[in-house]
Automatic annotation (TrEMBL):
GO process annotations (BP): methylation
Coiled coil: none
Keywords, ordered alphabetically: Methyltransferase, S-adenosyl-L-methionine, Transferase
Protein name, per record: O-methyltransferase
Length: 212
């Protein structure tokens, strides 16, 4: 008997992503240059579950891309809660709006277009949950910027922290700014005694950072 792929088994025994997210996923794979960047079925269900457990009233996502992760988090958030999501590439606006507008959770989502470093200080919010999934070169700067805005007991999630395994390479070229950015961020979190942290080997690495 043919052995079932472990990822297929996991997904077949987890909740479905639903028709809207499946359509978004297909659309991204057909029409976008880097569809691999979206969170996908498994990580999406995990993000939703985090929101079910944490029950955040205010969440922040840095890096909307297709809004796949945004929609998953909004699914898990209670009525009256809000997720601010920031996308620097305004060419994604039509794609994002196409799917956010169809979601029954669209009232929980506020999309901002522009540079997160400029937008975040203007939000005037205290966040229960932050999801960082944007420019890898700037992870440490995003972290420093949002940390004072996260409540004690709040959770920061950082995506791609294993970066295709490049974080374990012995020599990283000086020109590889993205890998160097992730390495610097991982070392920064390791040394930060204001938080508890663990890297999950999920997809490309997901770091959970709990503020004491």
């Amino acid at each position: 008997m043919e052995k079932v792929d472990i990822n297929d088994y996991i997904l077949s025994h987890s909740d479905d992503e639903g028709d809207l997210l499946a359509a978004l996923n297909r659309d991204a794979n057909v029409n976008l240059l880097r569809p691999r960047m979206l969170s996908g079925h498994l990580q999406g269900r995990i993000l939703k579950m985090f929101c079910r457990m944490l029950r955040p009233k205010r969440a922040l996502e840095i890096g909307t891309y297709t809004a796949y992760a945004t929609l998953c988090m909004a699914e898990g958030m209670e009525e009256g809660s809000l997720i601010h999501t920031i996308e620097i590439n305004d060419e994604m606006e039509d794609f994002i709006q196409k799917y956010v507008s169809q979601s029954p959770h669209k009232d929980k989502i506020k999309v901002h277009y522009g540079d997160a470093m400029d937008i975040i200080p203007q939000l005037n919010e205290t966040f229960d949950l932050v999801f960082i999934d944007a420019n890898k070169r700037l992870y440490s700067k995003y972290y420093d910027l949002v940390f004072p805005m996260v409540r004690p007991g709040g959770l920061i999630l950082a995506d791609n922290t294993l970066w295709d395994g490049k974080v374990t390479e012995e020599h990283v070229p000086a020109a590889d700014k993205q890998t160097l950015g992730i390495l610097a961020f991982n070392d920064k979190i390791k040394a930060d005694d204001r938080v508890e942290k663990v890297i999950l080997p999920l997809r490309d690495g997901l770091t959970m950072i709990w503020k004491k």
